[in-house]
Design a protein that fits this description.
Length: 167
């Protein structure tokens, strides 16, 4: 009698019909997908941004862009930047919202979480203000998906020698 060679996994009834190898996302793809999910909480009318701070493949903090806690959102009162026709990448101080990266840093600080040497996954390239904060927070790398028109931020990251990677 001839027996077919079967792997130990295929002998078990519970494994039949189930693929044993699955194409997995890379860590960068995985954490970026989470940042995109976080961005869905954004209340910004112009751009929904999400950020995730990770160290040793563990999520430390998340943030999305929107008005500060207890303040009416732009979805309720309108976008001041749009009303004043302010282009993207300029006059960041004229905005009701706090950026996703800022909120992720604030959340970590609120709960006493050390984010130094962490990696930031952001749906968008950080602006100049967020870049300065990420440098001072000792972030080791920035991974982003969409570009943002802020040459000052790129120059500062290059000077600080912090890798920033678009995926």
């Amino acid at each position: 009698m001839i027996q077919s060679a079967q792997s130990p996994a295929s002998k078990h009834k519970c494994n039949q019909g189930i693929r044993l190898s699955v194409a997995r996302k890379s860590w960068d793809e995985y954490f970026m997908a989470i940042a995109e999910l976080v961005a869905e909480r954004s209340t910004c009318l112009r751009r929904q941004v999400g950020a995730v701070i990770v160290k040793d493949r563990k999520i430390l903090s998340t943030g999305y862009n929107g008005a500060p806690r207890g303040i009416r959102h732009c979805s309720e009162v309108g976008c001041l930047r749009k009303q004043l026709n302010i282009p993207a990448g300029e006059r960041h101080e004229i905005c009701r919202g706090t950026h996703a990266e800022q909120n992720a840093i604030i959340q970590a600080a609120t709960f006493g979480v050390d984010i130094s040497e962490g990696i930031v996954y952001s749906t968008h390239q950080p602006c100049f203000i967020c870049t300065k904060m990420l440098i001072n927070a000792k972030i080791s790398k920035i991974v982003y998906k969409k570009e943002y028109p802020d040459k000052l931020a790129i120059g500062m990251l290059l000077e600080a020698k912090i890798p920033f990677v678009k995926i």
